[in-house]
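Our preliminary data section would be incomplete without showing what the modeling component actually yields. Below, a chain of 125 amino acids is followed by its predicted structure, encoded as tokens that our downstream tools consume directly.
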Amino acid sequence: MPSTERRAVATKSPAEPDGLPRPLPEPSVDDLRLETVLGALSDPLRLGIVRKLLLESQDFDHSCGWFGLDRPKSSLTHHFKALREAGVTRQRQYGLERRSHVRVDDLNQRFPGLLDLVAAWTPAA
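Predicted structure:
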């Protein structure tokens, strides 16, 4: 995918459907800190999760199963919690399932260009 297409995807915020559960606790936009966001994105698995959400997401939010990661549930829970607590993703509880999406508008407001870099990142083989 050419970088211009990636940039358009990374900066697009999904439309929020009606009747969503409240988000789980997360930092406000004003409390987002670059070092915290970069710390969460420093793990290749978490960086890959965010990149996949930016480039491949067609629905508003996604459960852990959508990512197709072969990791223990406890490990995935840790990674998704780290992304949420850093302010990179927003999670909502749907019964027993948590679903995530990237806080595109918030991150673009605080750190313009960051999500473009994440979308343009190429994972190691």
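Strands lie at 62-63, 89-94, 97-102. The chain has a mean pLDDT of 84. Preliminary results of this kind motivate Aim 1 of the renewal.
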